[in-house]
Amino acid sequence: MKNNFLNLRGFLIQCVAGIVAGFLNIALSLLAIKLHVPLFMDTLFTVTASCFGWASGIVAAVSLHALSFVVHGFMLQNLTFFFCSLTMVVCVRLMLFRKNALDTMERGGSKLLRLLILAIVLALVISLEGGLFYYALISLTKYNIGNQAVNILIYTFVTQNVPMLISATLARFPVNLVDKAAAVFGGYGIFTLLQKAAARRKNSGGSKNENSFAFDSGMGGGYRKCRRI
Predict the structure, then answer these.
(1) Is residue 18 within 8 Å of residue 55, measured between CB atoms?
(2) 3-class SS at 223?
């Protein structure tokens, strides 16, 4: 009975962390738009939340796009690109927190190299997903949608007689590579800082249970497994 209560409490904490991450994502995205930064900047805290666990990562992805509807109104592209955010959660959990990945880093494998590989994989996969969604949406709506820097690159490719589907995918890769590298290294860095802060608090005499709930929900949370990295 006690274990069930602890698991439920940890799950709820992950959900709250995911909602906070969603708010921070939308705020950072709006800041990037205001400052005319040619990046998406809407998934950094999705990476951080995903390091906590599956639940917080998924909730972060859902809350980001729910908030986007509130801020920007209903947009079909926001609904489809939601799957790109879920892809980030899956890739972070499988590539950084799968047992084999943790064992490799525990044996001396380079953490920075693994983060770099994750950023490249995310850029490739999300560029393909984004290209497919863009092609489908622009075929339906006939409107120019998405990031301005990406749209300029798409136009450049199209004027060179590159098919729209290929253009939409290729144009996304350089932007996604920078954007996802910033999200992966920044998001994981924030998680590491939070992890160290919790460890310092525990060492200073705080309750072990109270300081570990946010990182170990009993659902494969990041902190419990990352202590070995």
Answers:
(1) yes
(2) helix
CA distances from residue 70 to 41, 74, 117, 138, 171 in whole angstroms, order as listed: 18, 8, 34, 23, 28
φ, ψ at 47 (rounded to 5°): -65, -45
Q: Specify whether the CB–CB gap between 14 and 59 falls below 8 A.
A: yes
Region of residue 225 (left: phi > 0; alpha: psi -120 to 50; beta: else)? alpha
The Cα 169–Cα 190 span in angstroms is: 30
128-137 pLDDT per residue, tens: 999 999 888 8
Poorest-confidence range of 23-27, 137-141, 177-181, 193-197? 137-141
pLDDT of res. 3:
61
